[in-house]
Each structure stands twice: as structure tokens, then as C-alpha cells.
Amino acid sequence: MSDNKQKDPWSGRDNQSPPDLIELISKVFKKSNKTPENTGQEPHLNDSKSLGIIAVLVIIIVAVVWFVAGFFIVSPTDQAPILRFGRYTKTVGSGLHWIPRLVEKSFPVNTTTINKVNVSADMLTQDENIVTVEIAVQYRIDNPRNYLFNVVDPIGSLKQVTSSAMRQVIGDNSLDDILTTGRQKVRDDIEKVIKNTLAPYQTGIIITDVNLQPAKPPTAVTAAFDDAINAREDKQKYINKAQAYQNQVISMVKGQQSRIMQDASAYKTKVTQEAKGNVSRYLALLKPYEKAPEIMRNKLYYDTMTNVFKHTNNVINNTDGRSIVNISSNNSKTNKSDKKQSNNAVAAATTVPELQSDNTSTDSQSLSNNNAALGSPYDANARPSYNTAGGQS
Fold first, then answer.
1. Domain positions in the chain
2. Residues 343, 312: contact at Cβ < 8 Å?
3. CA distance to 174, 251, 272, 292, per residue, from 259 (Å)
4. 199: DSSP letter
5. The domain 114-217: what is its CATH number?
6. Mean pLDDT to the nearest integer, 258-266
7. 158-177 tens-digit pLDDT
């Protein structure tokens, strides 16, 4: 019966309590101390020696555990300020470090990750309109010591500073600027105020970016603001169309201007060349005229008359000094023979002996007679007279 009491009723095994660790260690040391020399000693002396050895072992184990626990690793993204009895001593970077536990303590802080806080509120603008503004501030921890020990709640302080900066800047701008054209300026002003406000507090936070979210007008006037925005877009569209038309017209005018300038330059060149040709012809006649002025004068006169008759409808035939031939250039039925006869008549009327400018042996008397005949082809009494009807009297 006594044997059954010693067994576990569920598993049938012996019901034994866990062994006492101190008792086992004592037994081990007692066995090691049983030698022929000390078998006769008293039991309490052996117990005191065993307890001393156990205490030393415990101290050694605790020392090893304390030493090993002093090692810690700081990740590449962190920095760890070290406090010794609650006082800051240094900040260590990434890698393996050791500190005496219970004397010093480390506080790893991530200094590379970009964090963000959002602040939204209804604010009053300069023109006394209410607008809902939301802003997202991105930051990172730049100084772990200041971040941990200078400010009780650095993130809360950042939110309060952001809200204050928003109200200050929004209150200095109109609703139209905040919603449309002045958004970039509002964003820059808010960022500047946040940085200037945080600097004296040394929170250990550095602002990397500030994003102004789309602002919303009051619900009661949303439709009116949408109309205003559409009108502004239409205005810009018409301005763009006007500029496009202006550029087109300017291009056409510049093309016409270039063409006129080219025509003018060509006309200038033509006139200049004609003038030079006329000068050359005049200079070519100058020397023969100096040698025989009267002959050259008559030649020039008849050449001129020939050119005049080429461009007139009335041709005078002075073979008998009376008949006049009228050749109309507008009569398309005029045959070639009539034109040939008319041309012959012109040639007969204007034919003069060939003059040689360099012939110095010409009879002066015959020349003077010819000149007299050419200068006055009709006598004063033999000239025909014409009535107003165009006939000969």
C-alpha cells in the first residue's frame, strides 16, 4: 500500500518531487571531501566550505552574464546616445559596442528614415474667407541627443509649430491665392516659418520637405469657385489662341516684307545696271561726237525719231510732203503686206547716208546741204495745212 502512494495515479510512475539543486551540489562537494585525512572532521565544517564554493561559482556566473549582456549592436540606420547613471556621455554609431550594464544605457534612434506628419485645419484667410488647408511635413531625426533629451514630445511640438505656421501664412494671403495662383508661395512661406520656429528649441528634427495639399473652399461657395476656375482656364485658352494667331500673322508679314525687300533689291540692281549701260553708251558716243559734232547730232536725231515712230500709230511719209498714212495697232485684220509697206515708208522717210565718224575727207558742202535738208524737210510755203476735221486743206 505504501508503494502505491509513491506512484502517480495517472501515469503509474513514482511520484517524486524535483531535486534540490543546492542539496545536489552539497552532496557532490561532500563526496569530493571524503578523504582518509578528513573523515574524522565535524559535519558543519564541511557544509560551510561547500556554501562558500557555491557562492563563488554564482558570482562568477553572474559576472559572465553581466559582461556578455553589455554587448549591443547599432544598425547602420541608427545612432545610439549613451547615458551613465542618467547623464549623457556620448553618441555611438553603427556597429558592435559594449557598455557596463546597470551603469550605462543606450537609446538607439533611427536617423535616416524620412517620417511624415499631417496637419489639417479650417483657417481664416486675409479676405475673411474660411478654407480647409492640409499640409504634410516630411522630416528626419538629425541629432538623437536633442531629439531624446531637449524636448519632452518633439513630434507634438512639430505639429503645433506647423499648425501655427499655417495659420500665420494663410491669414496673410487671399483665398484665390491659396486655391490657385499663390500655392507655391504659400508652401514656401510655411516651410520657412516652420524652420525658423523650430531652430531655437533644438528638437533634433530637420525638415526635408513641405507639401501643401489641395485646399478646399467652403461648401456653400464651392460652385462659385468652380465657375471662377473655369473662367480662368477659358481666359488662358483664349490668350493662347490669340498668341497663336499673332505669331501666324507676324510670320506672314515677315514673309511679305522679305519678298518686298528682295523685289526692291532686284529692281535696284536692274536700275543700276541700266544706268551703267546708258553711261557706257554715252561714253562710247562721246569720242565720235568730239570729232564730228554735226554728223553725230544728226545721227542721234534720226535714231531718236526712229524709236519714236516704232511706238506710234501715225506714220508720216514725206516722199511728196503731203500724204499721211495712219496705221492702227488695234486693227487685227491688217495684213502683213500693209505693215511691210508702212515700215518701208518709215525707212524711206528716215533714211540718211551712212555716216562714218572717223571719215575726215567728207565733202563739207554736201554735208551742209544734207543737214539743211534734214533740219527743214519742208519749205515754209510748201508745208501742208490741216483743218480741224483732220483733212488736208
1. 2-69, 71-109, 114-217, 292-375
2. no
3. 53, 12, 20, 49
4. G
5. 3.30.479.30
6. 94
7. 999 999 999 999 988 888 78
